[in-house]
Design a protein that fits this description.
This protein is of the alpha+beta class. 16% of the residues lie in helices and 27% in strands. It folds into 2 domains: 121 residues, SH3 type barrels (Roll), CATH 2.30.30; 289 residues, Fumarylacetoacetase-like, C-terminal domain (Fumarylacetoacetate hydrolase, domain 2), CATH 3.90.850. The protein contains 9 helices and 26 strands.
Length: 427
């Protein structure tokens, strides 16, 4: 799809540093507060956040099919009521206003100073009020690796995995914005396969390098969304760290799946990169064998070429990159995930978050979790300061970044980070 706002030749009157994740071709959406005010919808270009409530008050965002009051809301949900056509029109309008040859905002000194804020002066919030959260399990390599660790490698993939996007319903209340510390969780675990259960702080705190999509209002209860319409219901993508307590998870997950090993915290990047901004970076979906059932068939490329990396920062602030992978390493596309999620009539609502599951590639350095990178703790990683990690330690900060690039344009997500705090004493 050709959209004017995607033109790689576009330039802005706002200075954009070389290598920035946020050129004029990006224009993500988020919610932030500054100067002691309440959070409002924002976009970002370079090192500046743009307060959309100011632009709306000046009448610059009229005629888009978006109620002006939506630009005063603390989250994006009211704005998202306009659906993908309304958000597309908003992005095109912002692109026009920020284009180098458009004087409307550029030459209005008072309005420009009121609307544009240095990003380091903005406190970012969760971009949406999350209604429901689903975590998928869509990387074949990740599923294979985990199967090899806990089962016979000959039967690493369970019989259903190649036939449907496996997923589970997570806990929306513990999704937090980037920068929020994560408290080490406590729970039951076993110290050996035949040992009785013990209770205490997890000894195997892990990260999961994921990408999540956020939905518009979808289908009514009892109806479904097909793969041909799935992307019309997707606002955009965020980076997502689904923190995991592997020892707690291993003891509890049979027969109903993850519970306390997962629901203590998930971290989300603050800027939602719109699906339209990623349009130039579509890539072919993998061949699926055996062939999928008719409701999961899709036409055209529904995967996206997005480079991802994760790093551990120690107390001195220095980082060690521990993995590099790509969002295209999914077997199941977002279109298939949403089609499967709704094929039974489950309704999808505005602000729902659906995460990819751990994204792992075919080489050891591209594995998206410490469980895989250290092969369940048997191959510790060495950090820049000479210390080693099997799993995350108190004081570690986990940082994830991602971007799509090509044709002289870089569309990035910024980062999602969280620092591990010690477990609270159990009384």
């Amino acid at each position: 799809m050709t959209l004017p706002a995607n033109d790689p030749a576009l330039r802005s009157w706002v200075p954009v540093p070389d290598g920035s994740d946020f050129p004029i071709q990006n224009l993500p959406l988020g919610a932030g507060s500054w100067n002691g005010g309440p959070p409002v919808p924002m976009t970002r270009i370079g090192d500046r956040a743009v307060d959309l409530s100011v632009l709306a008050e000046a009448g610059l965002l009229d005629g888009l099919g978006i109620d002006r009051t939506a630009f005063d809301a603390p989250v994006l949900n009211p704005l998202m009521a306009a659906g993908r056509p309304g958000v597309r029109a908003l992005r095109e309008r912002l692109s026009t206003l920020l284009r180098h040859d458009n004087a409307v905002l550029r030459d209005d000194n008072d309005l420009r100073e009121e609307a544009l804020v240095a990003v380091d002066q903005v406190v970012m919030q969760l971009p949406v009020a999350v209604g429901d959260y689903t975590d998928f399990y869509s990387s074949r390599q990740h599923a294979y690796n985990v199967g090899c660790m806990f089962r016979d490698p000959a039967n690493a993939l369970l019989p259903n995995w190649l036939h449907l996007p496996v997923g589970y319903h997570g806990r929306a209340s513990s999704i937090v914005v980037s920068g929020t510390p994560i408290r080490r969780p406590m729970g039951q675990y076993r110290s050996a396969p035949d040992a009785p259960p013990a209770f205490g702080p997890t000894r195997q705190l892990d990260m999961e390098l994921e990408v999540a999509f956020i939905t518009f209002d979808g289908n009514a209860l009892g109806e479904r969304i097909g793969t041909d319409r799935s992307e019309d219901h997707i606002l955009g993508l965020v980076l997502f760290n689904d923190w995991s307590a592997r020892d707690i998870q291993a003891w509890e997950y049979v027969p109903l799946g993850p519970f306390l090993g997962k629901n203590f915290g998930s971290s989300m990047s603050p800027w939602v990169v719109l699906l339209d901004a990623l349009e130039p970076f579509r890539t072919a979906s993998p061949e699926q064998d055996p062939p999928v059932l008719p409701y999961l068939r899709q036409q055209g490329p529904h995967h996206f070429d997005i480079a991802l990396e994760a790093a551990i920062a120690t107390a001195d602030g220095r980082e060690t990159v521990i993995c590099r992978t790509n969002f295209s390493n999914q077997y199941w596309s977002m279109a298939q995930q949403l089609a499967h999620h709704t094929v039974n009539g489950c309704n999808v609502r505005c602000g729902d978050v659906m995460a990819s599951g751990t994204i792992s590639g075919g080489s050891p350095e591209s594995f998206g979790s410490l469980l895989e990178l250290t092969w369940k703790g048997t191959r510790p990683l060495t950090l820049h300061d000479g210390t080693t990690r099997k799993f995350l330690e108190d004081g570690d900060t986990l940082v994830m970044r991602g971007h799509a690039g090509g044709r002289g344009v870089r569309i990035g997500f910024g980062e999602v980070r969280g620092t591990v705090l010690p477990a609270l004493p159990y009384l």
